[in-house]
Amino acid sequence: MSVVKINAITPAEGAGAELEARFGNRVREVEQMEGFEGFQLLRPVEGEDRYYVYTRWRSEEDFLRWVNSDEFKRGHARTDGGTPVATHSTLLSFEVVEWPVEAPVESGS
User: Fold this and answer.
1) Is the separation of the CB atoms in 58 and 4 below 8 Å?
2) Is pLDDT at 79 greater than 60 in this prediction?
3) CATH code for the domain of 76
4) Residue 17 belongs to what domain range?
5) Helix-strand-coil percent breakdown of the chain, rounded to 5?
6) CA-CA distances (angstroms) from residue 11 to 1, 34, 50, 60, 77?
7) How far apart are CA 33 and CA 31, in angstroms?
8) CA–CA distances in Å: residue 65 to residues 34, 71, 106
9) Is residue 102 one of the residues assigned to a domain?
10) Is residue 58 predicted with pLDDT exceeding 80?
11) Is the pTM of this model over 0.85?
12) On the chain, which terminus has fewer CB atoms closer than 10 Å, C or N?
């Protein structure tokens, strides 16, 4: 059963664009991890100021292997000496109960 991990990140005042830039320039090692199924960075637009980092994993074990990996440590290390772009984050965890199956694409005749 797939699991979803959502990191709810509260950006520092005025730091949303920098947070987005840092994610855009990330090393992307997570995409190479066994069991990784997807990533999205969600920008708040109404009624919420937190960004959501959505990742989907084949299993909880795959996610934990990522969190405990050297790749994770490198990806989350602060090496630029700049100011933090977030003031707080919370990890939310879910099991995928239902996943829509895409309808087959009909070929033109």
Assistant:
1) no
2) no
3) 3.30.70.100
4) 3-95
5) 25, 30, 45
6) 32, 30, 7, 27, 17
7) 6
8) 9, 10, 40
9) no
10) yes
11) no
12) C
